[in-house]
TrEMBL record:
Main location: membrane
Coiled coil start-end: none
PANTHER family, per database record: BLR6921 PROTEIN, MAJOR FACILITATOR SUPERFAMILY MULTIDRUG TRANSPORTER MFSC
Protein name as it appears in the record: MFS transporter
Stretches assigned to the Major facilitator superfamily (MFS) profile domain: 32-496
Region Disordered: start-end pairs: 1-23
Length: 500
C-alpha cells in the first residue's frame, strides 16, 4: 500500500484493453489545459483579490469592522466546506458538465457581488462564488488527471497547474491593487465574468469527458457531517479573533466541528456510496500530500495576510505597489514548479522535492520574523519572497501530481476535491488562527510598552509589527510540520515515461 501511487500503472493495467485506454491522446489537450488553468486561476485568485479592495468596499457599503471579514470568510467557508460534495457531483454527472456549470454559476455570482448595494448582498454573492467554486475546482483537476496520463506530459501539465495554485494568490493581490486603484473595487468581482465566458466557450470546444458514473450516489448524511464539520471549524477559528478562544460559541463550534468530522469518518466506513471512500485515505502517499498541502497553505496565507497589512499600513505602499511587491514571489513559484519540479519529478521521488521545498519556505518565513518598522523591502522582504516562492513551487506540483496519480476513475473527482479541500481549509484556518495570534501578541506588546502617551503612535506601530512577526513564527512551524509529513508519509517512486 505504501507504494500504491508509484505502482498505479500496475494496478490499473487491465484497463489498458478498454477502448478508452487505447485511444490516441487528444491533439488539442494542451489547449484544453489552457482552459482548465484559466478556470483554476480564477478560483484561486478570488481567495485573495478582494483583500486589497476590502477597505474601499467597506467604506462604500458601510460595513462595520466586525463584519467586514465575511467578505473573505463567506467565500472560504462555502468553498472549503463543499469541495468534497463538488468532487462527488463531478463523478456522478460528468466532469465537463460540472466544470461548465461551475463556470456559469461563478460568473453570475460575481456579477451580483459586483453590483452589491449592501453588505448582505455582497456576503451572499461571495458565498455563492464559493459554492460554484466547489464544483469548478475538483472537476478541473480531475479533468487534468484523466487527460494527461503519460508521465512526461503529466509532469509538464501539473507543473503549470501547481504554479497557478501557488502563484494565483499573489496574482490576485496584484490584480486587486490595479483594479481598485484605476477602476473600482467592484471590478475585482466583475473581472471574473469575461474569464468565465472564455473558459465556457473553450470547454465546450476543447474538453472531452466520459459520461458520469451511474453507480455513484450522493451520500447525504456524509454531506451534512463532513461539510458541517468543516464549516463549524473554519467558522470557529474565524470567530476566535473577535470573541476570544474561551468564548462559548467558539468552543462549541470547534468541539462540534471535530465531533462531526469523527462521526463523518465513522459513517464513511459503513456508507454504501461514501462521500469520501476511505480507500483514498489508506494510501499513505495521498494522506501525506493532503497534510503537506494543508500545513503549507497555513503558512502561505499567513504571509499574504500580514505582508499586505505591513506593506500598506507600516511602509505606506499603495494598493498597486503592494501587489507589485508580491510579484517576485509569483515568479519564483512559477519557476520552481515549471522549471525545477516538472523536470525532476519523473526522475526523483516526490518527497525529494517536497521536503527541500518546505525547508526553503520555512527559511523564507524565518527571515520575515526579523522585520521591524524600518525594514527595507530589498534587504528583508524580497529575499524572503524569493526563497519562499521557490520552496512553494518545488512543493505544489508534486503534491498535485502524486495525490491524483493512479486513482480509480470513479474516485478522480473526490480525490481532486481532497487536494483542493486541504489547500482551502488550510488557508482558512491559517488566516483565522494566525490573525488571532498576531492580534493577541500586539495587544500584549502595547500594554507592556506604552508607558509614555506621547509615543503612542510609535509603540502601536512596533506592536503591530511584533504581532505579525510573532504569528509568522508559528507559520514557520507549520512549514516544518509540512516537511515532516512529506518526509514520513510520501514514498512514491518516480513514474518514468513508458513504465508499466
Amino acid at each position: 500500500m505504501s507504494d500504491s501511487i508509484s505502482t498505479g500503472a500496475t494496478r490499473t493495467a487491465p484497463a489498458s484493453h478498454s477502448p478508452a485506454a487505447v485511444e490516441a491522446p487528444d491533439p488539442r489537450r494542451w489547449w484544453g489545459l489552457v482552459i482548465i488553468a484559466l478556470a483554476q486561476l480564477m478560483v484561486v485568485l478570488d481567495a485573495t483579490i478582494v483583500n486589497i479592495a476590502l477597505p474601499s468596499a467597506q467604506t462604500d457599503l458601510g460595513m462595520t469592522d466586525g463584519n467586514r471579514q465575511w467578505v473573505i470568510t463567506a467565500y472560504t467557508l462555502a468553498f472549503g466546506g463543499l469541495l468534497l460534495l463538488g468532487g462527488r457531483v463531478a463523478d456522478l454527472v460528468g466532469r465537463k458538465r460540472t466544470f461548465m456549470i461551475g463556470l456559469v454559476g461563478f460568473a453570475l455570482a460575481s456579477a451580483v457581488g459586483g453590483a452589491a448595494t449592501g453588505s448582505g448582498m455582497l456576503f451572499s454573492a461571495r458565498a455563492a462564488q464559493g459554492v460554484f467554486g466547489a464544483l469548478l475546482a475538483p472537476s478541473a483537476l480531475s479533468l487534468m488527471t484523466t487527460t494527461f496520463t503519460d508521465p512526461r506530459e503529466r509532469g509538464k501539465a501539473f507543473g503549470i497547474y501547481g504554479a497557478l495554485a501557488g502563484a494565483g494568490g499573489a496574482v490576485g493581490l496584484l490584480l486587486g491593487g490595479i483594479l481598485t486603484s484605476y477602476l473600482n473595487w467592484r471590478w475585482c468581482l466583475y473581472v471574473n465574468i469575461p474569464i468565465a465566458i472564455i473558459a465556457v466557450i473553450g470547454a465546450k470546444i476543447l474538453l472531452h469527458d466520459r459520461p458520469g458514473h451511474k453507480d455513484v450516489r450522493l451520500d447525504v448524511p456524509g454531506v451534512i457531517l463532513g461539510c458541517g464539520g468543516l464549516v463549524a471549524i473554519v467558522y470557529g477559528f474565524s470567530e476566535a479573533e473577535p470573541r476570544g478562544w474561551s468564548d462559548s460559541l467558539v468552543v462549541s463550534l470547534l468541539i462540534g466541528g471535530v465531533a462531526a468530522l469523527v462521526a463523518f469518518l465513522l459513517w464513511q466506513a459503513r456508507a454504501k456510496s461514501p462521500l469520501l471512500p476511505l480507500r483514498i485515505l489508506r494510501d499513505r502517499n495521498r494522506v501525506g500530500c493532503f497534510l503537506t498541502m494543508g500545513l503549507a497553505t497555513i503558512g502561505m496565507f499567513g504571509l499574504f495576510l500580514f505582508m499586505t497589512y505591513y506593506l500598506q499600513g507600516i511602509l505606506g505602499y499603495s494598493p498597486v505597489k503592494t501587489g507589485l511587491a508580491f510579484l517576485p514571489m509569483s515568479v519564483a513559484i512559477i519557476f520552481g514548479s515549471t522549471q525545477v519540479s516538472a523536470r525532476l519529478l519523473p526522475r526523483v521521488q516526490a518527497r525529494a522535492l517536497m521536503v527541500p521545498g518546505m525547508l526553503l519556505a520555512a527559511c523564507g518565513l524565518l527571515i520575515l520574523t526579523r522585520l521591524d518598522v524600518d525594514s527595507a523591502y530589498a534587504t528583508h522582504i524580497l529575499p524572503a519572497e524569493l526563497i519562499m516562492g521557490l520552496g512553494m513551487g518545488l512543493t505544489f506540483m508534486p503534491v498535485f501530481s502524486t495525490a491524483t496519480h493512479g486513482v480509480r476513475p470513479q474516485d478522480a473527482g473526490v480525490t481532486s476535491a481532497m487536494v483542493n479541500t486541504s489547500q482551502q481549509v488550510g488557508g482558512s484556518l491559517g488566516t483565522a488562527l494566525l490573525n488571532t495570534i498576531a492580534t493577541s501578541a500586539t495587544s500584549t506588546y502595547i500594554a507592556s510598552h506604552l508607558t509614555d502617551p506621547s509615543k503612542r503612535a510609535e509603540v502601536v506601530a512596533s506592536g503591530v509589527v511584533h504581532g505579525y512577526t510573532h504569528a509568522i513564527g508559528y507559520a514557520v512551524i507549520a512549514m516544518l510540520l509540512a516537511g515532516c509529513a512529506a518526509a514520513l508519509l510520501v514514498n512514491a517512486k518516480p513514474v518514468r515515461h513508458g513504465a508499466h
